Amino acid sequence: MNQINIKNKNPLNGEITPPPDKSISHRAVIISSLSEGKSIIRNFLHAEDPMRTVNAFKQMGIETKEFKSSKVQKFKGSKDLVVIGKGLNGLREPKGIIDCGNSGTTMRLLCGVLAGQPFSATLTGDSSLIRRPMQRVITPLTEMGASIQSEKGGYPPLTIRGGELKPIDYKSPVASAQVKSAILLAGLYCDGVTTVTEPAKSRDHTERMLKAAGANVEIKNLEVSVTGKTNLKPSDITIPGDFSSAAFFIAAGAIVPDSNISIKNVGINPTRTGLINILKVIGADIRFENKREISGEPVADIYIKHSELTGTEIGGDMALRAIDEFPILCVVASVARGITKISGVKELRVKESDRIASMAKELRKMGVRVEELEDGIIITGRERLKAATVQSYGDHRVAMAMTIAGLVADGETTVEDTECINTSFPGFMEILKELQQ
After folding, report:
1. Of these residues, 324, 375, 410, 417, which one is catalytic?
2. What is 3-19+241-436's CATH topology?
3. Burial class (CB in 10 A: 0-12, 13-18, 19+), 181
4. Range name among 64-78, 237-251, 276-290 with the lowest pLDDT average
5. What is the reported pTM?
6. What is the average pLDDT across 165-175?
7. Domain boundaries 22-238, corresponding CATH code
């Protein structure tokens, strides 16, 4: 799938199940591998990014195998895994370099695990990942006692030599779940309490999962602490649908005329659902039904109908809780009445692409008035977009967002370089076509 052509402009109607949560899939494999014994992961996202984490632990001696479970409503193409954990000290030195592909989560979280190992390992990635800064995890992990070699400026490849770590009380300059998770995972190898304080609350899947595995985790407002040298117990984890993947269809339902979509089994962790709050503020018709908890994570079915939307200002905590949804939020803003300003998201400059610059450039091609800010964007909405040939920059979220933009454009829109969608959402186009019928 090297390019996508969007011709069909029918309303979107029907019921879908999104792919399993990518963030939780990564963490389930990591924490299961560090637990003592057999863990079961149901509804695992069998996509390129999480499989990089699986393969990394295979290189370090962890056995995984697939099995069939009928206990959960699943996304087509998801897998159920058994992971045979070997405890905190059971990993072996990998024989070769660990290739993290396009997955920043794999690289940053592995840094935390490797910081506590009595061996060295080298992490690399694809042409996109090696341009992404890693100093934000190198600094605290080095302070804890790990030795990490990188390219100038803190870029991959990274060579990590673990050792005896000491606990730290770290004030993170950024609200980043990857940074926080790396430090907490390294904290498992310390005598004493490791604490991370963030300027705002990032997603909390790691804390929830560590606590469920028996780690001593304390949470006080923006401060998270873990006590080290506690054995982790194996778990039976069911992964909910990925809100960040569902977001593309939530947004499409809101902006494509006469659409009516129901999305089943979606994780609604409050650190992730800023998009819902934003859409409600600007006039979207959204509701949750069948709220429940699965493996410590809140889950619901989401219903969305088309409605008229009006621009607003989005910043602070609300912007942070929708940071992964920035590309599709820009598409929503492009067809909302009036002006939408999104600020406080400078972090997006160093994602798979510079998402602020990418969305600004591509939406301009579709006739949208856009002003780029250092930490965000100002978008003036219009009734319909103009069809265009647009780029993804190898960024899966930009690729999917621009595909949805094509649904509200006059004429045929072509999105180029869309192979990257498979890193997080295999089957994206199949689901879109189902909803168009």
Report:
1. 324
2. UDP-n-acetylglucosamine1-carboxyvinyl-transferase; Chain (3.65.10)
3. buried
4. 64-78
5. 0.91
6. 96
7. 3.65.10.10
